[in-house]
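Q: Can I see a sequence and its folded structure?
A: Here is a first one.
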Amino acid sequence: MTYVIFSIIAYLLGSIPSALIVGKVGYNIDVREHGSGNLGATNAFRTLGIKAGSIVVLADILKGTIATVLPLLFNVDIYTLIIGVFAVIGHTYPIFAKFKGGKAVATSGGIILGFNPLLFVIMVATFLIALYISKYVSLASMVTGIVSFIVTLFIKDIGLMIVIGALTIFVFYRHRENIKRIINKTEPKITWM
């Protein structure tokens, strides 16, 4: 029963559509009607700018982190990574936004921040390096998943390995259209200031 309660709370936390809220409240813009139409941080950056995009990515990360550490705050003995996964599901299929959300990257990172902060630092560094080299946010996200999974092989935590592996597969699934565009060389690249 405890797993069910915390899973529902995590799903509802994940369902908070950060990009939609920031866009409507701060800019009177529905990000679903612009760019990719996605409710993730990348579309917020492209549609609303750096400041709004930064707020969205931070909020999306924190959704995963809060969901993961919430059982610890209540001193409940459950495997927190599983609870965090429900925040990712909520972010991707949010009940508050007609089940059309983001692509699971930032919220997945938030889970890891709440569970293993050092691995989160490795993930951020990997993402930034891959983004700098490729200029593709989608590719950097997928590379980060692969590198994170490889790192878990050295951490030797089976649960962490399974969750990172599952999240990486899910991130690839959510980016299947991006993969086609990368192959066809039509995927938008970021421009550095």
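Q: Show me another, different protein.
A: A second, unrelated one:
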Amino acid sequence: MIIKRVFDVVVAVVLILILSPVMLVIAILVRVRDGSPVLFRQERIGRHGARFEMLKFRSMRPEDRSAPPITIEGDTRITSLGRHLRAHKLDELPQLINVVKGEMSFVGPRPELEQYVDLFPDEYRTILTVRPGITDPASIEFRNEAALLAEYPDPERAYVEVILPQKIRLALEYVRSRTLLGDLKVIGKTVRTLWS
């Protein structure tokens, strides 16, 4: 949808300009308190299967390649500053850049790692016909995902077998019925969720 893309670019640019002082402060805090790098970059699968680097302010200690790619509540890899950033999703502000570049949208199925996409090829064939988003109905539904996963003895298995199938169902529903008005409602619900 051309209107959706114009909306994404205009709003993302305006927000970057307005929030640039906040983003600068966060970047300085991360650099001073936790060192480099300031940004966390992770390859995700985007529209039509294209790979891209999703950006976040780094909220965890340097990555342990043997550690699971998911995080749970109380994860010792999360820094004290990172916990505060994650609480209000401030770590995701750099994704505004992904939106401007056309790799993401404000609303769309959250982009996944290739290893998870490969587990559900038929479903993702449909999901990946749209740009992934900063938020979507599944983000609202599973806003306490880290706490939910912490309840399982094997969080990664629980993610694949319990959480991800539900996210996929919500993503498919979104793709099949998406509208600009629907996107605005999702954004409104997201904002209310963050500050409730």
